[in-house]
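The records we work with from here on pair a chain with its fold. Taken together, the tokens spell out the fold as the letters spell out the chain. The record below shows the convention in full.
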Amino acid sequence: MQLGLSRHTDDEEVSLFPLLRLLGRSDISGVLRQLERLESDHKTAESWHREIEEIGNAGFGKGRFAHRRPRGSEILGVAFRAVRPHIAIKPRPAVQNDISCAGRLKMRGPYFAGFAAAALSFLFSGTPAVCQTEAPKSLRWYLAGTAPDPTGHLPVGPGGKVLPAPAGQSIGGGFLDACKEDSERYCNGRRGFSARICLGQNPTKLSDGCKAALAALPIENVPACGHSPVCDNPFGGTRRELQRVEWEQTLGYNYAYPMDLPVGGGGVSAVGITSKGEFWVFQRNAAGKPQLFQFGPDYKMIRAIGDDVIGHQEKPHGLAVDAHDNVWICDANGATIEEISPEGKLLKTIGVKGHRGDWVEEKGQRLLWQPLDLAFAPNGDIYIGEGHGNESPNDTDSNDPTNNIGAARVIHLDKDGKFIGQWYGNSVGQGKFSSVHGLAVDPKTGDVWLGDREQYRLVVYTAEGRFVKTIQMRNLMCTVAFDPHGDPWVASGQDGQLLKIDENGNVLGAVGKGSGLGTGQFIETNYLSWDKQGNLYTGDTSVGRVTEMLAPKK
């Protein structure tokens, strides 16, 4: 494919291949400086081509790259520093490119910014360009603040209305309001779950009121993340201080809250829809209260499933509905996945309740390590995503022979639950991931997409577990799902939106009004589903309600 770089007319062009080749074998900073100079000198296309070749010949094998090729991180760092002054990040990029299958890259901006965009595309994809009939239009984005996290403790009334906090409780601290000063002093002002972890590591220093508040919280059977760089750094800032990337809403969805859950419940981690249009809702509730609810197509509750059927779920997480309308639920901290029939009966349990560990098929050891989500392939194969990153315990090289890997992983089973294989996030080579907060199977290719939340990236593998590509994103990647047309979507978690993307991670549309408690807002979006009318549904892990996003009428 001939890829050309054009001025404002079509008669002066220069091939980008020499430029892209230089990125792989030359002193990158020198090349970029020369390109800037060439642009400022307004060289003709022929002069560009000739001087670029001269730069390459002169720069090869010199400087810090005399004995090795530059690493991708070095290329990216240099390229980004050079490109950054030329790109406006608020409210939209300054450069917009049109790529067509005719193979011409036509610029609507400076030469150098255009070259940098092409170079960065090359760096991420490993190929000069992707031939497509029409490039996605650039969606505008901006930075927005973070709303206080009620951590699932605010009551929600009919119609999804968030009610005032109980007396003595603020929405920012939940049941740890008594620890506010302690958190400021010892934990850099953290709130919610991360505050609980940090405060628990400083028990002798805490005030009496904070000690009492911590003692009143439910017992956590899973140790906090510790002694690992994957864990949150207590001196690295807090989530409430983050400025989050929020995308312009252009898809025309409206918002409703048609399903009423019992008042006083916790956050909703996941929503699934059956072939009959029935809804399954997974909620984080205290022991003794139902956590799994079934609603009809009319949004009226059919049944609530309690601990007598599924046991208490220590941390409800992902949910998926299979081809037979059975619902599968993941208990992250309980280390199990359960299959429930459409009639609410327990059919199968994978893993051992309360015993997190490693799956070693040759030993007959079939344990799960923080199962967060699962997905089904068209042939019925099951993929289980494990590992919570900054919320996982450090079990690496532990003294427990059944639990000493301590790394995020994907387990692959056949439709009958027989083991096929697994792969790990810390394996040698490309395709690293520190968590599998969500995963989905591409119905068009069979590839398995992973959402690595805290690393802001998607990692794609084949059905057999061979690495395909990593896609770096601007948002948290809490989960991945494919809509009825086979197009990928992601939930941006505490960034407060659901994003429609293309196969390369370009954001094509956004639903959700960002971080908050208002209509169409979220504290943390998560696992999502579509009904047959194209309406979109998701829960909020910090607010006990299900949001229906009504698709615009065609």
